Amino acid sequence: MKDRADPHVSTAGGRPGGLRRPSWARLDQKISPYLYVLPFFVLFAIFGLYPLGYTVWISLTDQSPMSPETSFVGAENFTRLLEDSRFWNSVGNTIGMFIVATIPQLMMALILANWLNRRLRGIGFFRMAIAIPIVTSTAVVALVFGMFFARDYGLANGILEMFGMERIDWRASRWTSWMSIASMVDWRWTGYNALIYLAAMQAISRDMYEAAELDGASRMRQFWQITVPLLKPTIIFTVTISTIYGLQLFTEPLMFTSGSGALSGGSTGQFQTITMYLVQVMRTYHQWGYAGAIALVLFLLIVVMSAINFLLVRRISSDR
Amino acid sequence: MTAPTMSAPPHDTKPAPAKKVRGRKPQHDDGGPVRRAGPLTVGGLIVAAFLSIFPLYWMVVVASRSSEAAYSWPPHLLPGGNLGENVQRVLDNPDAAIVRGLVNSMIVSGTITVTTVFFGALAGFAFAKLRFRGKNVLLLAILLTMMVPIQLGIVPLYIIMSELGWLNDVKAVIVPFLISGFGIFLMRQYSIQAIPDELIEAARVDGCSTWRIFWNVAAPALRPAAGVLGLLTFMQYWNDFFWPFIVLADPGNPTVQISLKTLNSAYHQDLSQVFAGMVIATVPLVVVFILFFRQIISGIMEGATKG
């Protein structure tokens, strides 16, 4: 390739310095690609790779901004984690909220996508309406829903009372706070997932449905036996993304209470997530080494959960 | 590349046989969606659209009334006339730092957007159109880096920022994110289809340097993708909360999302101010989103279907 340009230089060139250009051009073609991709790797090395290795190291020490000296403690942080009930509480909350939020979210997204994949005047409006939560920041979602679930004057309790039911202190107990937080997550992400499913559905040939129709398959069967199996790679993608984000849940539960103790996730930590505990250990307790260990375990958990979900989805959607 | 977009799905090649679908009149096959929507579907869509829009609408309602009105029952469902006044109050409130937050967010999102698009185009073009040793390995490495969550390195990252003296400085939320693997990947996918090899050959024959080929041939062709990537990136960092919360902890120098949190904690009783702040932070993005809906959605889908 590098020789290809050379024969033309004398004819097409004719510029000053034309004689020196071949070697220049060759150098340019050799070096330039590396220069163009270099910035990414430099930045990643400094702010990605280096912190990664540093995390592994720090998790084996008792480093803290409070103590001048750092000593190597081996696996101590990890054995401490095993007995740390606050940590396990946050693990339970995170996985619990992840399940409560994600399963209905992806189900609704599938149904929504199926609806959006119809012929209807004004379907563009519906697509846009359902996608609009994507532009809202998590902080704003959490504040609006936080007011909706307020104990005394919240809209949610007002509606409950209207139907003759008791008010609920949404933040007070584990289940109600999980449901409230899950509703924030679902409001923000259902439309996003629906659009991804819709894109995959639009790639399915209509012939398959027409053939199924001729065979007398009901709409329901067509959905489960044609649409869902063909969407399997897309479903796996959304489940993976939801797992990664779901296990890092932070802003919604943090903003669910205001004030200085927000990182604790409620009076008994009923909605404290792993990331909230990680930040609390790092920023409030100043235990950097221990925080590093939590970060590593969180990452491990994400990998394991993603793998489990991957196998699960593959199983379920091929059984149908 | 074959990324699905919001446009019509692949055409059936044969003319549509007039099949009866549940007794309805035969639909003509224009490559549109599969079926006509029934009343149940329409009903479901109306409910879903309502649920999607209502919280945002309600935000405007609260922001445009007095603070007491937020607690009244039955709730007010129509916007009041105080939006301008509430916005003014929150902008004037020196403790809320909302103006500071807006300016900071502009700087942060703007800078990251420009560099992400520029470096994304540059590297994406290289991966798509230039030949060099180790190309595939490097591309794979970029894909792998996209899977590492920020939480994993948060403690050292915080220490680095503190040693650089960047805590409470917007540099801490800008510099680590100047380039994104996703951006490079998106640009690579687009470059493959948008820049003909012949054009590059021709430019080489004319004696163009690689840089001039990028700037004069590739960059103009990449403009649509650059727009989409820019919008997505801007949205992402405008809305980001986690990392700014860690490194901009001091309320004196927040991004807009952080100032909203501070505002809510400090002025919890004055909800109309809090909500006015939220309207300021959200409405511009909503407008941009509506204007560029198709492009943004196809960008999201392109990223999604690449995995």
UniProtKB/TrEMBL annotation, chain B:
GO terms for biological process: transmembrane transport. GO terms for cellular component: plasma membrane. Residues 102-292 form the ABC transmembrane type-1 domain. Keywords: Cell membrane, Membrane, Transmembrane, Transmembrane helix, Transport. The chain crosses the membrane at residues 40-60, 102-125, 137-161, 173-192, 213-238, 274-293. It holds the Pfam family BPD_transp_1. It is a multi-pass membrane protein. InterPro entries: MetI-like, MetI-like_sf. SUPFAM superfamilies: MetI-like. Residues 1-36 are annotated as: Disordered. It is found in: Cell membrane. Belongs to the binding-protein-dependent transport system permease family. This is ABC transporter permease subunit. It comes from Phytoactinopolyspora mesophila.
